[in-house]
Amino acid sequence: MDYTTLANGVKMPMLGYGVYQIPPEETTRCVLDALEVGYRSIDTAQAYFNEAEVGKAIEESKVDRGDIFLTTKVWINNAGYDKARESILKSMDKLRTDYLDLCLIHQPFSDYYGTWHAMEDLYGEGRIRAIGVSNFEPDRLVDMCGFNRIKPMVNQVEINPLCQQTEAVKWMEKYGVQPEAWAPFGEGQDGLFTNPELAEIGREYGKTPAQVMLRWEIQRGIVTIPKSTHIERMAENFNVFDFKLSDGDMGRIASMNLDKSLFLDHEDPRSVETFIQLTTEQKDLF
Ligand SMILES: NC(=O)c1ccc[n+]([C@@H]2O[C@H](COP(=O)([O-])OP(=O)(O)OC[C@H]3O[C@@H](n4cnc5c(N)ncnc54)[C@H](OP(=O)(O)O)[C@@H]3O)[C@@H](O)[C@H]2O)c1
User: Fold this and answer.
1) Which residues fall within 8 angstroms of residue 261, CB to CB, at 6 or more apart?
2) Which stretches are annotated as coiled coil (predicted)?
């Protein structure tokens, strides 16, 4: 496993396991499988509704809590100082842990400054080892870096061969913010798992398109957190540290960039309206 060192000196695995869209009844088994395969970083969120099942897996596994890098994210419904603080402590209870390795603001909406101040305080109290954001476009990220006591240490955004975030990553680097990729496979959209270019590159190294996509991110210095409910795929996705893509192949993948999200544009007011509607519909769930 390769590691990156965050701005505050905390070491974070370059490859982790994401549990978005894994139903609660499957989550404990999946996380136990992932830990068995060798993953030591788990990415969940309040809005995934499976924190308790992640916590159960960590408790049941033979891996020490200290060897696991555990991330959760604060959802929009819990924005603002008091609600965010209370919700993070509740997440820790669900996760059966008294500290988080990383806590992120999930979306750049509502009172995320209040949320950030709660996270800064919990960081100061030693309850969170690193704090960061997710889905922050460069302008909002620079704002967060410029007007807070503590700068975000991580920004988790969509990154895959079709949405490469080249410009956004430059801004993160300028401010010492570690980029982390969600949907490293674009959830398989646009046939990414059978893409002929990625398959051809993979054949040179005896690797699959999935492995090529993850390796490309790791070589760009981007932390990546693929999700799979299948143990063979978890193992396939984990097996990316025994080869190195050539500069030529890195360039071939760079030329696949469509430079736009496969899912949603966070700067589009209609996307914001969708989140407003969702938080209203889900107000009793948080
Ligand atoms: N911060 C955010 O807003 C945000 C948003 C989205 C995701 N995330 C995080 O990022 C993680 C990863 O993103 P994601 O889950 O959206 O998508 P993803 O990892 O890009 O893709 C997951 C999909 O790929 C399939 N898959 C995985 N490995 C495969 C392989 N080797 N061969 C073929 N198919 C494979 C999975 O199917 P099976 O499960 O059936 O194997 C699943 O359908 C999430 O789990 C979550 O932790 C964060």
Assistant:
1) 158, 163
2) none
Domain boundaries of the chain, sorted by first residue? 3-285
Task: Tell me which residue has its CA closest to atom 25 in ligand 1.
Answer: 228
Task: Give me ligand 1 centre to Cα 48, in Å.
Answer: 13
CB 134 within 8 A of CB 168: no
Q: From the CB of 103, is ligand 1 less than 6 Å away?
A: no
End-to-end CA distance of the chain: 35
Ligand 1 atom with the smallest distance to the CA of 156 is 1
Any bridge partners for residue 183, and if so which? none
Per-residue pLDDT of the chain (286 residues; tens, 9 = 90+): 999 999 999 999 999 999 999 999 999 999 999 999 999 999 999 999 999 999 999 999 999 999 999 999 999 999 999 999 999 999 999 999 999 999 999 999 999 999 999 999 999 999 999 999 999 999 999 999 999 999 999 999 999 999 999 999 999 999 999 999 999 999 999 999 999 999 999 999 999 999 999 999 999 999 999 999 999 999 999 999 999 999 999 999 999 999 999 999 999 999 999 999 999 999 999 9
- Measured from the Cα of 185, ligand 1's closest atom is 20
Any atom of ligand 1 within 6 Å of the Cβ of 186 = yes
Pocket probe for ligand 1: among 69, 104, 228, 274, the residue whose CB has the most ligand atoms within 8 Å is: 228
237 CB within 6 A, ligand 1: yes
Structural class in CATH, domain 3-285: alpha beta
d(CA 180, CA 249): 21
Among candidate residues 17, 39, 48, 112, the one labeled active-site is: 48
